[in-house]
Amino acid sequence: MKTRALIIAAVLAVAPGIASAGEPTAPEVIPPKARALAIQGRAFHDAGDYGNAIIAFKEAYVMAPSAGLLFNLAQAYRLAGNCDDAALMYRRYIATGPSVEGRTIAEGHLETVERCTHKASLGIPQDPGVPVVIKTDRASGSLFATAPQAGRARLEKTIGLGLVIGGGVALGIATYYGFEARSSAAEVEKGYAMGAKWKDLEDIDARGEHAATLAKVFGIGGGVAVAGGVALYLLGRRTEQMAPIAIAPTKQGATVSASWKF
Fold this sequence. Notes:
This protein is of the alpha+beta class. It has helices at about 30-45, 50-65, 65-80, 85-95, 100-120, 150-195, 200-240, and strands at about 135, 145, 245-250, 255-260. Strands 1-2-3-4 form a 4-stranded antiparallel β-sheet, covered by helices on one side. A hairpin with a 4-residue loop joins strand 3 and strand 4.
């Protein structure tokens, strides 16, 4: 995920280093090379070249350690599929005592990469690049963070669409056979009106009965498929928007709340 908004802490990625507890923070001169490396790392990150982004961020961190660079490294490791190192960097970032917003975002990503590590230990296929999605409320400036089950949502929506399409085809076939049944019935009635005998009309009537049965089967099956497909697609849509965490800035810091979207 291109997380420009989430690496604002690293826009000045080589800002003054974190002071130890109880120690005053003194102005610090940032080496120009460290600043240039941080900017280069961000450019690699935005281009999806996470391997080179990691190299640049590491070199910048050696020259000028900062919490922002730890976060950048964690992001790059996660998106490169290196869950172990990503988890380590997120923990180190959280240990620096970031803002409530930063901590919430980092903890969401940390949970994702820890699941990735656990799956890897069990040999389960995984998608470590599934990110915590961050949305910004333009009106309030709040951040909304959630870790969607992207794979499950895509599967539910895909199957749902498939059922709707298949159900629509089945309903079309049911309509065709219904027309055939009505045509056969009309032909039988016309034959009787013209004085034809049953043995002359028996095959036509049997064809109509068969068409009527098929129309009923395809109609019921198509209706069930369309209804189930719509329900499954909507379920997939809801899965994409599950349990967002709202982070609203306040004078004291920030408030965090969770809600559901339907």
